[in-house]
């Protein structure tokens, strides 16, 4: 009787322990079988791919895959599904993975998408479901990225977050083999993103676009109200135009490619320092793009030449210096006017501009010059992207030239491009304002 009582009392305990062990080992086995997953060990998070640790050393962009692989990179990030099949295939060919962006609404932030409209959100989820089914088994796929900075202008943050969580839940149901993230900015409220843990329990990773606030991310993520889960720096690059000094008429002052390179190298060192939550980062922009200017974020020239930033990333990522190094910009000046002053020039007048450069083979360098009008919007290319023909008529292949200012009053920039014979370039520009009378 006593033995029976002991068995009766201990049976629930044995069943409980058995259940715990079963689910524990089943969870571990499930984790091992997943293609890509986030694992947590002793409070530290790591990304695993095919059972091996995978730290993201990436570029944000959709071109120059071979160059990324050559300097030690392993992954690229997209913002939309445009040419997704081609991008995934090209990445696989070059031994790279892809964080594949799923656009919600139109770029840049999906302001046209109504998160409160149940019919519209249901339709969007079904559209995304077809996308996930199409690409979930591609060997280059690393992570699903739901939206980019949609919290900024997408509407009510609670509604936006709840919708993102619905998408993440759906993705996990049909693709348990890849983590899901959404991307926000390293803004002033990043230290309060703990609300995302409550509203988005199906999100595995938070993507953070961080520029001059990058040094604050680690502390803000791990604060009492912070995300306190894994994150990826989905964009790291030079200071954004919203973070720089402006001229008196409001034109942001752009750093030279040499200054940019030092910033990005330093930012990568910061990214590597977070051993608890950080899973890596994507350099921005891996390619050539127009945003404010055609050089602000571009790590490549319009004709595919490499900037100094790429040389320094290679050193950081591989520990090896490149055989050839890009030219270094020392100074760009109109007469004796230094870069960070507000420069006013007379309309239809002639001035001299000079670019000063350091390079091992300075005599072999070539030069190009452009003048472009500063436009009204940072995101509308046609308002900026105009090259004045009169400047192209000058002998551009010199480090010092004369140029004639436009007739029309307004804000402009003069750009200098310096090329070596080894596929490298450097660039700098000066904003100036054309007036009828000299000030």
From TrEMBL:
Residues 67-238 form the Glycoside hydrolase family 2 catalytic domain. InterPro entries: GH, Glyco_hydro_2_cat. The chain crosses the membrane at residues 7-25. Gene3D superfamilies: Glycosidases. It comes from the Bacteria. GO terms for molecular function: hydrolase activity. SUPFAM superfamilies: (Trans)glycosidases. Keywords: Hydrolase, Membrane, Transmembrane, Transmembrane helix. It holds the Pfam family Glyco_hydro_2_C. The keyword Transmembrane applies. This is Glycoside hydrolase family 2 TIM barrel-domain containing protein. It comes from Belliella kenyensis.
């Amino acid at each position: 009787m006593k033995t029976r009582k002991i068995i009766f009392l201990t049976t629930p305990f044995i069943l409980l322990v058995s259940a715990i062990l079963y689910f524990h080992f089943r969870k571990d086995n499930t984790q091992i079988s997943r293609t890509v997953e986030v694992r947590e060990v002793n409070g530290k998070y790591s990304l695993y791919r095919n059972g091996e640790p995978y730290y993201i050393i990436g570029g944000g962009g959709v071109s120059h895959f071979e160059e990324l692989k050559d300097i030690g990179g392993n992954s690229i990030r997209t913002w939309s599904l445009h040419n997704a099949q081609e991008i995934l295939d090209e990445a696989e060919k070059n031994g790279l993975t892809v964080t594949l962006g799923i656009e919600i609404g139109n770029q840049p932030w999906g302001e046209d998408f109504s998160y409160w409209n149940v019919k519209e959100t249901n339709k969007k989820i079904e559209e995304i479901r077809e996308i996930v089914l199409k690409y979930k088994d591609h060997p280059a796929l690393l992570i699903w990225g739901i939206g980019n900075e949609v919290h900024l202008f997408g509407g009510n943050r609670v509604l936006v977050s709840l919708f993102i969580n619905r998408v993440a839940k759906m993705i996990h149901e049909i693709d348990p083999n890849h983590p899901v993230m959404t991307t926000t900015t390293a803004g002033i409220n990043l230290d309060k993103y703990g609300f995302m843990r409550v509203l988005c329990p199906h999100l595995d990773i938070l993507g953070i676009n961080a520029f001059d606030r990058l040094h604050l991310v680690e502390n803000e993520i791990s604060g009492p109200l912070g995300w306190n889960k894994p994150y990826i720096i989905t964009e790291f690059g030079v200071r954004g135009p919203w973070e720089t000094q402006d001229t008196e008429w409001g034109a942001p002052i752009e750093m030279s490619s040499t200054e940019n390179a030092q910033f990005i190298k330093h930012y990568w060192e910061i990214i590597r320092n977070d051993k608890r939550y950080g899973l890596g980062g994507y350099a921005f922009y891996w390619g050539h793009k127009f945003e404010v200017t055609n050089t602000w974020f571009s790590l490549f020239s319009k004709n595919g030449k490499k900037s100094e930033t790429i040389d320094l990333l290679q050193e950081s990522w591989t520990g090896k210096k490149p055989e050839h190094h890009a030219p270094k910009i020392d100074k760009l000046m109109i007469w004796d006017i230094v870069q960070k002053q507000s420069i006013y020039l007379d309309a239809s007048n002639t001035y001299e501009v000079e670019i000063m450069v350091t390079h091992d083979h300075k005599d072999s360098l070539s030069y190009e010059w452009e003048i472009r009008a500063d436009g009204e919007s940072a995101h509308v290319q046609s308002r900026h992207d105009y090259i004045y023909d009169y400047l192209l008529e000058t002998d551009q292949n010199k480090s010092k030239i004369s140029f004639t200012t436009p007739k029309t009053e307004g804000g402009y920039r003069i750009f200098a491009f310096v090329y070596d014979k080894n596929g490298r370039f450097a660039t700098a520009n000066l904003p100036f304002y054309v007036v009828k009378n000299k000030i």
